Amino acid sequence: ARATLEKELAAEKNLGARLSALRARKKLLEDLEKAFEGYGKGPRSVLEAASQGRLKGVVGSVSQLLSCEAKYIPALSAAIGGAAEHIVVEDEEAAKAAITMLKKTNGGRATFLPLSLLRPRAMHPRAEAALSKMKGVRPLLSVLSYPENVESCVRYLCGRIVLADDLDTALGFMKASGWATRAVTLSGESIEPGGAMTGGEAPRSEALFRRKQDLLDLKSDEAKLAGEMDLVLSRRKAAENELRSLQEEREECVALLGEASAQVSRLEEQLERVRASLGSLRAEVERREPEKLSLETEEKEVLRELSAIGERLSDVSRVMEAKQGELNKLDSHLRTVSLSDRKSSDEIQKLRAEKEVVERELSSVMRRLDGIVGEKSSHEKALIEEENEIKKQGQNLHEMTMLTESLGTRISKLEEESRRLAGLFEEKSAEREALISAVSECQAELARIERDSETLLTRIEETAAEIEAQEQAFLDTKELIASEFGVNDLSGVSFEKVTRAQALQKIEELDEALRALGSVNLKAEEELKELSDRLEIIALEKVDVEEAIQEIHRAREVVEKEIEKRFLETFSLVRESFREIFKELFGGGRGDLHLIEETLGVEVTAEPPGRRQKHLNLLSGGERSLCGIALIFAILSVKPSPLIVLDEVDTALDEVNVVRFGEFLRRYSENTQFLVITHQKATMEAADLLYGVTMQEPGVSKVFGMRLNDGNTR
C-alpha cells in the first residue's frame, strides 16, 4: 500500500506538471486570440475596438464564428480564404460606424458582412442533382458548426460550396453539375465555377482556424486531465486510507503473529517435552513390558500359591479343629481321669505328652497360617500397585495423545491464518500492478501531448518558413517584371500627353519594332493575362506576407517581453533562495548572483565565513562545489523538477559538508527524486535505495540494490 501511495503521489505530480504545461500552452493561445494575432491591421483594429466597447453591433470575425472538425479545416480554409478575416456585424449601421472608425484612426481596411443585408445563397439545382447521384461529395454546410444568429452569413459564404473527398472526385462533380457551383477538397484544393483550380500550400486563414481548433482541443485535454487528476486524488485518498487501514491491520497482525509465534514456540517446546516424555513413557512401557509379563506370570503363580495356601489353610484348619477336638478330648479325659480316682500317673503323663505334642503342632500350624496369610497380603498388595501403575501410565498416554491432537488443531488454524495473509498480500499486489498500469497510461498520454506540442511548434516554424518563401517569391517576381518590362516601380508609372504626329511616329516605331520581332505570338495575350494575374496574386501575397511579418514581429516582441519578465521574476526568486541556501551550506557568509548585461550571463560571487568576497573562479574546489550545489537547490526551491541526476558533485567536499549535502537531499526529496552517483559514505547514508555494481568474476558485472530503511537486498 505504501508503494501504491508513492505511485499515486508520483502520478499526481506528473499530472500536475502536464496540467500546468497544458494550461500554459492554452493561456498562450488565449492571449494570442485576445490580441487578435494573425489578423490584418483593419480586422484587428475593429475587433480590438469591439472588445473594448468602442464599437457596437460587432458579432465577430468569420474565423471566430465558424468551426469544424480538424480534418475539415483545410477544406474550410480553402473555401473561405481571405473572408476568414471579414467582420460580421448586426446591420449596415454597425458597418458604417466601423468604417468611420478605421478612417479616423488610420486603422487599416476591413470587409464587413451585415446580417441585415446578406441574402443566403442556395445550391444550384444541377449541383443538387449531382450531389444526390455521386458519392464522396456533400455540402460544405453539413460539416460546419456556427451560432444560429449568423446562419444567413454562413449560407451567404458557403451555401454554394461542395466538399469532395479528393481532387478527382471534385472534378467529376463539377463536370456532372455543369460547373454550376464551387468545390473544395479535404486536402485544401478548390475548383471555381469557371474552371480555375487552386491548390498547394495552406492559405494564411488556416492558421486562424487551426489556432481555434487547437484551443478547443487544449480545453478538452485540460478537462480530461482535470478529470484524471480528480481520479488520481480520489485514488490517492483511497490509498492513504487503505494504507492507514493496512498499517492498523498490519500492527494487529504483527501483534497476533507475535502472540502466535510465542504461543507456537511455547507449544513447540511443550510438544517437544511431551514427545520426549511420550518417548520415555513408550520406552518405559517397552522396558516394563517383560516385567509386566513376569508380574502377570508371578501373579498367576501367586494365585496358584494362594489357591494352594487356601487349600492348605483349609487342611490346617481341619487339622487344627481335629487337634483342638483331640485337645478338648484330652482335657476332658484328663478331667475325667482326675475325677475318676485319678488313673495311674503313666497314663497321665502320656496324655500330657500327647497334649504337648498337639499344642506344639497347633502352634506350628498357626505360625504357618500366619506366614501364609502375610505372604498372601504382600502378593495382593504388590499386584494392586502394579495395576495402579499400569492404569497411571495408560492415563498419561491418553493425556499426551489428546494434547498432541490439540496442538495439531492449533497449528492448522495458524497455517490457515498464514494462507489468508498470503492471499491478502497477493490481492494488494494485484491492486498495485493495476495502479502501475494506470500510471503507465497517464505517462503515455503525457507523451502524446508532448508530441502534439512539438507538432504545433513545427507548424509554427513551417508557417514562418512559408512566409519567408512567399516574400522571396515576391522579390523574385518583382525582379522578373523589372528585367522583362523595365518597370521597377509600378506605383510610379504615369502616362504623358502626346500629339497626333508624335503618336503616329510612335506607332511607326512600334510597327518597325513589331516587324523586327517576327511572327505574332498567338499566346501572348494569354501569357500577359497570366502574368498580370500572377502579378496581382503576388501583390496580394506580398501584402499578406508583410502583414504576417509584422504580426510575427509583434508576437515575437510580446513573447520576448514576457520571457524577459518571467526570467527576471524567476531570477529574483532564485537569487533570494541562493542567498539563504548559501548561508546554510557554508554555515554563514554571503553568496549572490548578478546578471551580466553585456553577455546576458550570470555571475556568482561568494564570501565564505571569515573570508573576503571572491569570484567563483578564485574559490577552492570544495567551495566551488558547494556554490554549485547551492545554485541547484535554489533553482529546485523555485521550480521543482521530478528527477535530478547528480554525478559525483560531492567528490571535493569534506565530511561535514557531505553531511550537510545529505540533509539537503533528504529535505528536497519530498518533491524531487534524486539519482546520485557518489563514493561518499555520508551521502549513501542519506539515500533510501542503494545500487552497486560488483565484478566477482573478470568480465562479469553484477548489479545489486539495497533499501536502507528495511535492510532488504536484491
Give structural notes:
- This protein has 714 residues and is of the alpha+beta class.
- It folds into three domains: 39-203, Up-down Bundle (Taq DNA Polymerase, Chain T, domain 4), CATH 1.20.1060; 259-462, Helix Hairpins, CATH 1.10.287; 565-713, Rossmann fold.
- 69% of the residues lie in helices and 10% in strands.
- It has 15 helices and 16 strands.
- α9 (205-339) runs antiparallel to α10, α10 (345-485) crosses α12 and α12 (524-586) crosses α13 (621-638).
- It is elongated and about 230 Å long.
- The two termini are 20 Å apart.
- Residues 490-495 have low confidence and may be disordered.
Biggest sheet, strands in spatial order? 4-5-6-7-8
> How many domain regions?
3
Q: So what's the overall shape?
A: elongated
Number of helices: 15
Tell me how many strands there are: 16
How widely separated are the two ends? 20 Å
CATH topology title of the largest domain: Helix Hairpins
Estimated structural class: alpha+beta
Portion of residues in beta strands equals: 5-15%
Assigned CATH class of the largest domain? Mainly Alpha
pLDDT average, as an integer? 75
Based on CA atoms alone, the radius of gyration comes out at 59 Å
CATH architecture of the largest domain: Orthogonal Bundle
